[in-house]
Amino acid sequence: MKKALIIEDSDDIRESTAEILDLAGYATFTAKNGKIGVDLAIKHTPDIILCDIMMPELDGYGVLYLLQKNPQTAGIPFIFMTAKAERSDMRKGMEMGADDYLTKPFDDVELFNAIESRLKKRHKPVGFKATAGDKETLFAELKAKGKPRSFGQKQIIYVEHDQPSYLYYVVKGQVKTYKRAKDGRELSSTLYHAGDFFGYQSLCNGTSYTDNAATLADVELLLIAKADFMDYLQSHQEISGAFMSMLSNNAQHKDEQLLRLAYFSVRKRVAETLVEVAHKFGDKQSDECTLRISRDDLAALVGTASETVSRMLADFKDEKLIEKNGNAIHIVSIEKLRNIKQ
Amino acid sequence: MKKALIIEDSDDIRESTAEILDLAGYATFTAKNGKIGVDLAIKHTPDIILCDIMMPELDGYGVLYLLQKNPQTAGIPFIFMTAKAERSDMRKGMEMGADDYLTKPFDDVELFNAIESRLKKRHKPVGFKATAGDKETLFAELKAKGKPRSFGQKQIIYVEHDQPSYLYYVVKGQVKTYKRAKDGRELSSTLYHAGDFFGYQSLCNGTSYTDNAATLADVELLLIAKADFMDYLQSHQEISGAFMSMLSNNAQHKDEQLLRLAYFSVRKRVAETLVEVAHKFGDKQSDECTLRISRDDLAALVGTASETVSRMLADFKDEKLIEKNGNAIHIVSIEKLRNIKQ
DNA sequence: TTAAAAAAGTGATATTAATCATTTTTTTTG
DNA sequence: CAAAAAAAATGATTAATATCACTTTTTTAA
């Protein structure tokens, strides 16, 4: 049930307006002056506020000003209902940030429609998940704010404890994020490739980085300033939804990695990692794929020693699952690799 | 630089309005009818749209309708500027969802103020991180929407592949989320206790659950309907910020777990898990803590066999780091346990 | 093109922790 | 309170994989 707050000094108008809204199915609160109105608004955080302008104690402009200052109430749709029908009055009300301006006398239908349209506007039926197609246009604007930058192989993009100042977008190449144990062993949690954003994890909770990021191959990035990103998050519902979705996906992926790391054999883990890397590096249609990745990087992704990776690759080669030319790994069948048991 | 789109059939008015905005520092796009206007709006996603009502091809109402249907443009502030000054015309425009209604003729200042106030309204300076104190009031409303429910020990709350329909809030007790490997071994990724929300991961990306949730002890939860949660996410910037922050923290925690699982000895992992569980179960000030947790649950959190946990606990007991009375584990010094090497 | 350096691979060995079997302890229930 | 059931602990054994030392291959740079 939607909550409506009516702030109006005239007992008649206040009561009759409240009655209309009660009948229309709203939970109605009323205040007979601005001061009480502000208190009620903060206490109940209604879904909509209707407010007169000329009132004792605190007038409608004052109410609007105070409510807009308070983050808790700033977003609540605010409609002036007033006898002040002059153009200049109306402009002042709208310029202060009201959402609608209803001049008295108004009829039930006008009132009701005004409320409904503001409620509808607020709760836009914006899809939360963007499809792949939408995503492109959705992010186009954000990406337009980024400045391009090129990195060579094995260059560090950020390290633990750095203060984050950019959101990164991968235009070309691959980037890994990793953590380092005290004894120097590395574990890569995620591999990013063209079309991925990264670095938003720390931006989203306002902490310094808890991991490191480095390039695998030659990489082209877009660096989007933290302020621009935060701006977009706050003003574009779709963008913040999309990033929430990414964060959730990451968390889900990490849960799977945890399960693997805990209970799967190294053989299975190497196989799954190869499949994942192939998916990031290669063409998605084909069942074959050639990877150029160092055994150290692979070991960091699997969470094992590089010698062990070498051994597993040798096994896979014997089993004709992969071929090796030079240091490149050619996967003969991604599907077979995926279906390796234990 | 903010982008403004002017949709107006009169060449004079269109050009002069554009000129005013250009001088005021906007990047201005113009369209001489509604059809072109809609195309430009979708192409450029301007920050504000000014639109006449009476136009050939497609009138202003049609433009507004089409733009509101499109999620990409639905949120852009939309101002009618029109000669239709009748009360009924104005009501119709506002009821359709316009953000302001400017009747011609208007002067530069009116136009400029109208635009500025709508832009300002959209980019509310809402703080992204809520402090601990704020959080309580921030979530109070959301929690008020939840219905309470009690669970006994070891009861299942949801399982993999279920369609999520609630956001959960822990009022009392502990809840674990876990994944199960094909051979039945469990790995718990997170332990939730009083004051925690859970279940938002799957809600946020719209997928079915990829993990299971079950109670450890007797638990009281608040079940907040998915629709209510989604509604809040979309309308309350602070809430969506808070949940993004939670998602990021979870991801960071999982990164740490991954590193541990990959390279730390079971001894170290059991010790760290005990410290974490103590933190969730016990009083935060004290360096001592008594835990009632089954060896199986502990093993699932560590990612090891329950026999191994028993052995480690026996070792810790010998080293006087813990005591055991019955099956309860009494940690003598959390600090010492935390500082165990390898 | 070749020498030097780096990366990858291999063999032997040690170690950790899983597994299975069994005993002991604790908890539950009639 | 006692018997039954469940949970926890322990011993013996085994399997997996990390480590170290060394060789081979590949890459880099003179």
From TrEMBL, chains A, B:
User: Where would I find the Response regulatory domain in this sequence?
Assistant: 3-119
Q: Which UniProt keywords apply?
A: DNA-binding, Phosphoprotein, Transcription, Transcription regulation, Two-component regulatory system
Name the domain of life this protein comes from. Answer: Bacteria
Record's protein name: Response regulator
Could you tell me which residues carry 4-aspartylphosphate? 52
Q: Which residues form the Cyclic nucleotide-binding domain?
A: 148-233
Q: Which organism is it from?
A: Pedobacter albus
The cross-references to InterPro entries, in alphabetical order and at most eight, read:
CheY-like_superfamily, cNMP-bd_dom, cNMP-bd_dom_sf, HTH_CRP, RmlC-like_jellyroll, Sig_transdc_resp-reg_receiver, Tscrpt_reg_HTH_Crp-type_CS, WalR-like
**Which segments constitute the HTH crp-type domain?**
264-335
**Does the keyword Transmembrane helix belong to this entry?**
no
- A Pfam family that this protein carries is HTH_Crp_2
